[in-house]
């Protein structure tokens, strides 16, 4: 089922945290179960093979050659939708890039950023030559994810929305007629030079359509982002592009069902979730939350996670009583796409850079709104009232106390 | 890992819809992967084996004997929590029962109900003798799930909250000092004899603590419940019992993140999800939604699904253009428990009656609220405002339109 077009490519990183040296859950199961069992497990776990199977896409040789030459995972799938009478199919090709950084964090900041640009070029070229319409990079792709350190010097990486990282991508957007979602550390020049975690949406003409700032900021494990930036002030914008209505739920926002909901209420058809998250903390949540959001909100979700282990010059503690250490843990990649019909693609590698290409007919969103009716059966009035009461300090929960609570068992 | 205490028990139903005759996903993987691979797959899929493993519980021989004699699946697990300095552990033993009906739907209604009572007795006895504190039965356990037919005669099964099904369970609640959650078809005598889908909460002294009515009613596939009853009018009550604060999200409500949220806002520590759902429609969603709710709301979720295939006297159509047929499809069981740390138990059988017993330290809920902080980082004010605006007919979504949308690609 998967498109192991670069099966011979070199591994970028040894699977240090793996006990069995596999590349992805999907391949581990496929390589070790008989075909009947694998098919049934896929049906239960990914909603595949129940009637409509997910199809692989044939990519141009130029893309395959780039993946082999540069050692990145390249997989491509297609979701199908029913044919309608009054609407033509609206098939969009989405590309997701996951990557490790390119130079040690001790290198000059300018060199680090430039090296990431150079590393990404062939992967972006492979996207463009494969006809990708909307391309999304991982969270803060233009820097190491240094927020674990709590050192403010990493703020130097921040750029205005129209800074060098945006300019770098604008040329590709124009060249390949692609919409590109670029998540950066933003320096807000017009508001006291403050820092934000921001996604810039670049239109297919190379224009900047707008930006969205991360709504929910973590305070867990080594995710010390609240030291660097505040909760976003851009609401839940949906960007209407030539390829469909898209939105961005940045990283930790995926743990917040209301965040997913609000993008849906504003009409999103694809919600991108550019992330940076590590194995010990979140890996069992990774295959759950995005799929739940796709099901509950009848849209596609495209999940991207950073890859690799980044080591910093100065050791730091993690608030867990353990000794100081200099790395954040393993970013486990595993980027994938979830559909409103509860199916999902296999995930990219846990260890290597990768490009996941997925064709999706956006008509599937409304088809599943009609089929399951969640938007109609949701009783939003009830919850507007509940939340309106909850946010008041004097809120009293609805609790029915057993009147015999303190009587001894007979 | 699983407690295959009744490995030799007879199968109640041939796995008609299975291509490989396995009993559960968990056993399929365990029996076909080597131990290292199985351990890693379990970590990725269920959050187990990352540090804290889930433990099996030894049950009394009387319970094991009942499971063998009556051929029901019996499994028992324990979740752990960190030891605290200021709170003692609050370990609660929860039991979930999944079952098929006992007589053909053509039998006299009184006989059908009585036969279900008789069938459940040994499973409830096994629960009681195993020291279960809170027991939950499946949705509308006292009748066939006849709402696919749209025939109103099945309303005869409905009972008042203090009717015969409640009385049947009250004696066990008293005998075993158990809280029992009983989901019935309710006849509301004091309000024009209307019908509701209702869970009755019976206290450990055999008293009725209260009731909750299903909040979200499906209109999908053969789930024609909207023909029989309306959306519940009991809000999102949390029942404070001697064993902890519990709530009930009935069946289709599991597709609605706001429903899960509201029980959490009211303080639930365990939310039960008594369900009746069939393979072709919902099976890939089943392992997703409950776990997402447990993660997002920092509580335990106990999911129960009915088992078996029920055939009705008169054929009905399904609005899918296919020929009329007389059954609803296969109710796939697979009851399981999800924890706030993103782990979950293996599931019960897809084919057989079953009792799943789980020990959970309710301290884990607050520990994960403190660790992940979702309740603090949720920005409820923002969403109270969003929903308040959304429910107005004149709502305008937040959309940023690419100003170059209609310019041709260069």
TrEMBL record, chains A, B:
Any GO MF annotation of the entry: beta-ureidopropionase activity
Q: Which Gene3D superfamilies match?
A: Carbon-nitrogen hydrolase (3.60.110.10)
What InterPro entries does the entry give? Aliph_Amidase/BUP, C-N_Hydrolase, C-N_Hydrolase_sf
Q: In the UniProt record, does the keyword Cell cycle occur?
A: no
Single biological process term from Gene Ontology: beta-alanine biosynthetic process via 3-ureidopropionate
Pathway listed for it is: Amino-acid biosynthesis; beta-alanine biosynthesis
User: Domain CN hydrolase: where?
Assistant: 92-362
**EC number per UniProt:** 3.5.1.6
Top-rank taxon, per record: Eukaryota
What is catalysed by this protein? Answer: 3-(carbamoylamino)propanoate + H2O + 2 H(+) = beta-alanine + NH4(+) + CO2; 3-(carbamoylamino)-2-methylpropanoate + H2O + 2 H(+) = (R)-3-amino-2-methylpropanoate + NH4(+) + CO2
- Give the keywords, sorted: Hydrolase
The family database entries (PROSITE patterns) matched by this protein are listed as:
CN_HYDROLASE
Classification via PANTHER family: BETA-UREIDOPROPIONASE, NITRILASE C965.09-RELATED
Family according to the record:
Belongs to the carbon-nitrogen hydrolase superfamily. BUP family.
Name under which the protein is recorded: Beta-ureidopropionase
Species of origin reads Vigna angularis var. angularis
């Amino acid at each position: 089922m998967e498109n192991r077009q670069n099966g011979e490519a070199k591994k970028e990183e040894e699977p240090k945290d793996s006990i069995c040296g596999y590349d992805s859950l999907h391949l581990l199961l496929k390589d070790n179960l008989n075909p009947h069992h694998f098919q049934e497990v896929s049906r239960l776990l990914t909603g595949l093979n129940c009637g409509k199977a997910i199809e692989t896409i044939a990519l141009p040789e130029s893309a395959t050659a780039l993946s082999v030459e540069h050692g990145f995972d390249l997989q491509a799938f297609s979701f199908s939708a029913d044919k309608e009478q009054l609407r033509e199919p609206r098939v969009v090709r989405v590309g997701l890039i996951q990557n490790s950084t390119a130079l040690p964090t001790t290198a000059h900041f300018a060199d680090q950023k430039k090296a990431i640009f150079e590393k990404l070029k062939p992967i972006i070229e492979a996207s463009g030559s494969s006809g990708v319409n909307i391309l999304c990079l991982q969270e803060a792709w233009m820097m190491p994810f240094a927020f674990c350190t709590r050192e403010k010097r990493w703020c130097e990486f921040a750029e205005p929305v129209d800074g060098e990282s945006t300019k770098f991508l604008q040329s590709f957007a124009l060249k390949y007629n692609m919409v590109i979602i670029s998540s950066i550390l933003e320096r807000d020049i017009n508001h006291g030079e403050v820092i934000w975690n921001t996604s810039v949406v670049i239109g297919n003409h190379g224009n900047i359509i707008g930006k969205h700032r991360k709504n929910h900021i973590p305070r867990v494990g080594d995710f010390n982002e609240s030291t660097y930036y505040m909760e976003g002030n851009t609401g839940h914008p949906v960007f209407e592009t030539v390829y469909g209505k898209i939105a961005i739920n940045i990283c930790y926002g995926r743990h917040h069902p209301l965040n997913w909901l609000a993008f849906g209420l504003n009409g999103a058809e694809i919600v991108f979730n550019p992330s940076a998250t590590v194995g010990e903390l979140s890996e069992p949540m990774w295959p759950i939350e995005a799929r739940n959001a796709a099901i509950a909100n009848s849209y596609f979700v495209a999940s991207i996670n950073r890859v690799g282990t980044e080591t910093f010059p100065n050791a730091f503690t993690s608030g867990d009583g353990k000794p100081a250490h200099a790395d954040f843990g393993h970013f486990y990649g595993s980027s994938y796409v979830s559909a409103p019909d509860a199916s999902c693609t296999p995930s990219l590698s846990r260890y290597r850079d990768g490009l996941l290409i997925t064709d999706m007919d956006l008509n599937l969103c409304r088809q599943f709104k009609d089929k399951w009716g969640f938007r109609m059966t949701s009783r939003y009035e009830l919850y507007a009232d509940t939340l309106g009461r909850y946010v008041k300090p004097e809120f009293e929960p609805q609790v029915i106390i057993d009147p015999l609570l303190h009587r001894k068992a007979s």
